[in-house]
Every structure is written in structure tokens, then in C-alpha cells.
Amino acid sequence: MREGEPAEALMAEVGCEALWGVGKNLARRLAGLGIVTALDFKRAEAGQIRKSLGVVGERMLREMNGTRCLELEDMPPDRKGVMASRSFGGPVEALEELEEALANHVARASEKVRRFGLWATRVDVFLQTNHFRKGELQYCPGAGIDLDEPVQATTDLMGIAGKLLQRIYRAGYRYKKVGVMLGGLVNASCLQPALEFGEVREEPRVDIDRIVDGINRRLGDRKNPVITRGSMGVKKMRRKREGDGNDWQVRRWRMRSGMRSRAYTTNWGELVQAG
Questions:
Q1: pLDDT given for residue 182 in this prediction
Q2: Model confidence pTM above 0.85
Q3: In this structure, how many other beta carbons lie within 10 angstroms of the beta carbon of residue 86?
Q4: Which CATH architecture has domain 10-64?
């Protein structure tokens, strides 16, 4: 817009199809209502525009008339927390299996935290039984801790989450879900080195976790990483039954995937075979 030139004079020369999000098809619809130029659009009734273009169209109309509907942001705000949790494929009672499931969730959550360049200052862990099974004992505990220093490393977060799980675990319950929440996320500009023995400790540095993240992104996926830690267990375990050394059973804490579509384009073992 040239300085000193009335805005409405320019709007009268611009068709509705030039407005953001309108296009030719919607412009034809507006033309049927007598709304041809941007000036016609600006002077239209809000209810009429909402009926034709929905809430987004009405918001644009109000913006053109000087009513602010959206706040400007130079950069999107950082995430406040990252949660990882899934229901088990079957009820789980053993602490060892819960620890393996939790370790997998922590690995996924910490990878996401690093991907966004953030550090966690709080860890929360929760357990849930199946509330749909009315005849079973119900128990849905949770525990959390605020960290003295921001943490990003998977191993450290696994250790913290594991201790929280041991604190809330109770034997005798059939658990349906375990999860972790990494909260109080801060970026590098917010990190404050802690004092220890009169010296300032170094800020967290890029470590082997980032290398593992890169390899898993290239060669695997988030659900099935190619590099895992021992605390995450194995995908399958040998069933303890005499006389059959080749029988395998999926961990009960793994989600069921019997109805999953075959990965024809990403898995060699699931390619369609002809003949």
C-alpha cells in the first residue's frame, strides 16, 4: 500500500480470490452473494461470512475491520512437557516387566526432548489398572520429583523414573498401563550451572544419546529402534516350556498388533509374494 492512499480505495480494486484462504471456488460462492471485491468482503455482515466461509472467514473479516483475533508470535513457544505411555497387550503384575515397559517409554520421551533441544526439570511416573474390570482390585498411583539440575540423558532419566516406579509399585495388582511425563522443559538459554565444591559444573553436552538417536532415525523408527539399552528388555522372550526350544512369546506389556496393516513398503519380510 502506498503512503497516503486510502486502504478502501485499494480494496475496491482487489477481487476476493486474492484474499488469503479464499481462492477461486470460494470467490464464486461469495460473488453469488454480491461480494466481489475485498471491499465488499470488508463491509459484509459477519453472520453471512461465517455461514459461507466458517469461523476462519469471519475471523479474517474482523481482522480487516480492525479487531485483533490472533496474537502475533515471533517463535512458537517451547513445549511444557512430553509424555510417553501405552496400554499393555495384557495385564502385567511383575515389577521387572513394568520396569522394562517404563524404560521404553523414557527412551521415547527423552529422544523427543533432545530433538526439540530441551532439558527436563521434573519427572513423573504413573501406573494404572484396568478400571473396566470391575471385579479386580483398582490402583492408580503416581509420583514425581523436581530435579536439582536439568536432565536430558536417557540413562539418567531411566534411573530417576525407575526409582519412582519402585516407590509406587504394589504387588497383587494387574496393571494395564505405565507412563512417564518429562516436565518443566527448558531450552539451553535457561540452563544454570550448579555449584559443586566451589566450582561451576559444565553445562550438559552432546553425548552418545544423540548418536544413538541419529542411528535409530536412519535405520529404525521410534517404535522399533535398532539400538536399545538392556533395561528396555527384548521384543520377545523365550517361553519356559520343556521340549520346545523354538517357541517364543511377545512380552505382555507390548501393545497388541494383530489387526495392524502389513508394512508392504517398509518391511522386507512383509512384501507381497506372487506365485
A1: 95
A2: no
A3: 16
A4: Orthogonal Bundle (1.10)
